[in-house]
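Sequence in, structure out. Go.
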Amino acid sequence: IEILRKLVETATILKHPRTIEWSLKLTNHKEADSEDRLSYVRQCMLFGENEKAIAWFEQGPLMKDASEEITYLQCVSRANREGQGKLEAFQIAKAYLDKNPDSQKIGDFLWDMCLQSEELYLFNQGLEHLRKTALGEDNRARQAMRRLLRIPSVPIEERKALAINLWHSGEPTLTDAILC
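Output:
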């Protein structure tokens, strides 16, 4: 299995056309670990084969594993999908955040995807999630407040309240001073 791992690693660096094929062989090897299995998904995404990654997730053994990395890869692969892909990614990210609200990686993904979306529903969902997160008193809440202050469509009264809360939430930064 070590030889196969090295082959996939080297093929990835060289962007060899058979990288996905070799990565699938590694994934299906009886001694493959979860990192080996995830390498196939990563390869599919790097080569623009998101549908292969999604199909593997749907039939693969890691589908039941709700780790942050697996959830992130599921979200990214679906967000690049045509049609309802972003909505699928939103639902996966939201479900994960309902159970793990402190996940910065999934939270940032959700905020970025929603706030950059041209779909009003997703944009509004992203704003709602930011506002809910900003009510806290931790570092994540401060990050949410900073993002909300950068959004032009946030009403001025809300922006003032956010600026005051951010300034009084503990050790303000120079960036916070500029935002406030």
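Check: DSSP finds eleven helices and no strands in the chain. The first helix runs from residue 2 to 14.
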